[in-house]
Amino acid sequence: MNKGKTIFAQIMSLINEYEFKKCVDRYKGDRHAIKFNCRDQFMVKSFAQFTDRAGLRDIETTLNLCGDLYRSGIKAIPRSTLAEANEKKDWRIYQDFAMTLVKEATMLYKDEKLRIGLEEMIYAFDSSTIDLCLKLCPWAEFHHGKGAFKIHTLMDLRGSIPTFVMLTPGKVNDARMMDKIPVEAGAFYLMDRGYVAFEKLYKHFQQKGAYFVTRAKDNMSYEVIESRPVNKDSGVLSDETIRLAGYYSTRKYPDTLRLVVYEDIETGRVYRFLTNNFAIDDPLTIAELYRERWLIELFFKWIKQHLHIRTFYGTSKNAVYTQIWIAICDYLLLIIAKKRYGLDPSLHSISNSIGQVLFQRADIREIYNQPTTPVCVPEAGSVEQPTLW
């Protein structure tokens, strides 16, 4: 079916042209565009991110050296044309298109099973800070003379799908974004200690019938209401029902909470997990549930490293946000391609190697569904291990 098509063309063929055009028309993205429209910009920047181009000049040079770009749907253009598009074409085009890809990916993975085995929806919520040069990007002032912005993400763990993404200035406190995320009754939300704001946990999760799992802060004041027996051989040291004891915290969160203390046998480190779920019988499941949060850490690493957010192809807010949203679109296209084409390797392996096979003319299944799948191995020290806890 895909004979003669490049791998890049097969991935880009998953784009719903009708939905893409609706996003473009909504912001008049192709107004006055004659030779280089929004679709061309999307294709060129996706190529640049998949192949790890270092800048506009690198993109221009590489495209000029590549033969038969027509079969991949890419135009070789001067860097000045791409730079102008990055400045003028509204970044919200690609934000809106990413949301259409989220809907498609969510439908594809709706029956996916998690390692934990729970039937409830499980989400991870976190943020990542992207550093910028303040001299080049004065709009991104952070603190101490540095520039940065944040990517706040809510991820559906069934397919590692970022269902909610918001870009904010680096100064924005993480807990403030809890007011923005959509909350579903009966679903689990995994968050780190930066989101332990009891008033928001009570208002946005407890009162809406949703469950949260987070890590307790070291200075949390509480009283034990009930202690349940545990199997300490599993690593669980205690499983208690508690009530907050602080003057303000008791008013912000008047209900009881569950505190599970767990020791990681491999490292000897002790973790205290805080949740409002009392229905799960085995406290070890609470610890294992929180461990699944590592999937969102991988998402941030892929966005920063594998889709080349280390180098920006413009310095204005519009150019930077455009690149981020196209990178998110590319990530979602890989998720969709994995399911649509029935690719066996993990999403991590596919995203690592996609740049090496981008212009091969073979069915994508033949490339990936074999024991010798090509994998791009990062240089030593370039990739940190994800933080599990």
Give a description of the structure.
This protein is an alpha+beta fold and 389 residues long. The chain has a domain at 192-290: Ribosomal Protein S8, Chain: A, domain 1 (2-Layer Sandwich), CATH 3.30.1370. 37% of the residues lie in helices and 17% in strands. The protein has 13 helices and 9 strands. A 9-stranded mixed sheet has the order 3-2-1-4-5-9-8-7-6, with helices on both faces. α6 (92-108) runs parallel beside α11 (317-340). The two termini are 44 Å apart. The model is unreliable at 373-388 (pLDDT under 50).
Structural class, from secondary structure content? alpha+beta
Count of helical stretches? 13
CATH class of the domain at 192-290: Alpha Beta
Strand order of the largest sheet: 3-2-1-4-5-9-8-7-6
The CATH architecture of the domain at 192-290 would be 2-Layer Sandwich
Q: And the CATH topology of the domain at 192-290?
A: Ribosomal Protein S8, Chain: A, domain 1
Radius of gyration: 23 Å
Uncertain segments of ≥5 residues (pLDDT<50)?
373-388
**Approximately how much beta-strand content do the residues carry?**
15-25%
Through-space gap between termini: 44 Å
Helical content class = 25-40%
Global outline: globular
Domain Transposase IS4-like: 121-332
InterPro entries: DUF4372 (IPR025399), RNaseH-like_sf (IPR012337), Transpos_IS4 (IPR047952), Transposase_11 (IPR002559)
GO biological process, one term: DNA transposition
Protein name: Transposase IS4
